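Notes from hallway chat w/ T.B., transcribed later so I don't forget. T.B. wanted the structure written out for a chain they're using in a teaching module, and asked if we could keep both sequence and structure tokens in one place. Agreed to drop them here.
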Amino acid sequence: PGFSEVDADNFGIKSSYPSAIVFEQGVAIPTQIMPLTITLKNPGSISLSLSDGDIKGKSAPIKATTLIATCMVWPHEVSANSNGTVTYTVANTVDSDIIQIRIIIPEGFTYINAGTISQLPVEQAWSAAYNHSSRCVLLTPNNDNGYLPKGAVLSIPIAVYTGKNEQEAIKWSSLIIGRQGGIVPTQEAINGGSEVAITAYSLTCQVSTDKVLLGGAATITASVIYQQTGTPTSGATVTVRVINGQASIPAGTVTTDASGQAYILVTNIGTITETITVEIGYGLFNTQTVSFQVISPIPELSAGKNSFPDKGKIYANPVTPFILTPFGSFTCEYKLDSGNWQRFSQSFTIDSSGEHTIYYRYADESGHPGGTYTASIFISPIQTTKLTNFPNPFNPCEGTIIQYYLFSPADVLIQIYNLFGELVWMKNIPAGQQETQQIPWNGKNGDGEVVGNGSYICRVSIKYPSGDVVMMRKIGVVK
């Protein structure tokens, strides 16, 4: 009591500096002479006058020193609303011994107890006691010879209970007393080394796909969990921003539902093929990024048998199958001429003869279509009363396809004869649908033996309700 700060300097400017030293009652007795030491972070010169109260004395030249004792706290992050342990470490690099350490418990932390103090090199034991009024843990040696010498390191685990809300990183400070009675200046061993933050939530993010069509869309699912109980956090405001590439997102924030999830629809993705990166955040410390690639693949359209390309056009017939090849998770869509778009699931044919245009494209998981491509098709008419086979002649190793057309559902009998009129092979086919029929023959007789080279007669009998239709064709076998 009796110490006061300087009110103003010689120019009348009020001092903005905090108190350099605070006397506590009982530190000095009237008969003692107590040296006053002030430590400056930066070299400089000051004058000191002691005149308040009963304090008297004179100032000697004041020497600026650097901060030389270091402190460290671990871990730098603890969970909210739970018991945790924070280890405080002091390294003595001062020329004098340390006889007392006071660790201040900051706001947001409630002291529970202190663990065993460890010291390197091992010297005399120290004890810890907690002062509730000053919220500090007092560390002192157990005997007069148990000082913490220069070069020694002391660590103490302190059990605390954390607040239920998140808290920015806050410094754990300490007051260290040297053997000569002065305060030993301290600084963090590394920048931020004495800071501890309180975290309450965990944030996880997942994107619906890692590849998106140019101009398409993707959905990001953000989940917020309260760490202590593991329960989903509803009503949490999640921030969203695009940090790389071009895309549209909601108005900066979304809110989690009852399941603790928020769904972020990213649209209008990319004007070029590039990587899009989105940053999602919640609370003070939870930030994650998700990325996906913008691509622009070209769908592949292929035509089956009885077709061939010529001068940018595909020539086919009504039984020619057309196939679109999928790409990753993208689906294929197509339409014929001015018809409606439909999803490709199996090969399709074009029944009507003449000129046609097939439009085709990819669509992503959100249904957004990619670029549209076209193919010019010419369908040649099939003579519906004609019996054909392809190839002809054929090698039994490859087989041939016997083709005919049904005006309406009907039973069919196919017979193969040699030139002596002997039946070589036959097949009964139950009534099929009204369309072109394709029946394979592998060049073997009824006993499964490959027939010899030469010409054979194929006879197809179609049993319509109105009467039978019989067609015949010569087939050549060449091994």
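Follow-up for T.B.: Residues 1-67 have pLDDT under 50 and may be disordered. Might be a good example for the class.
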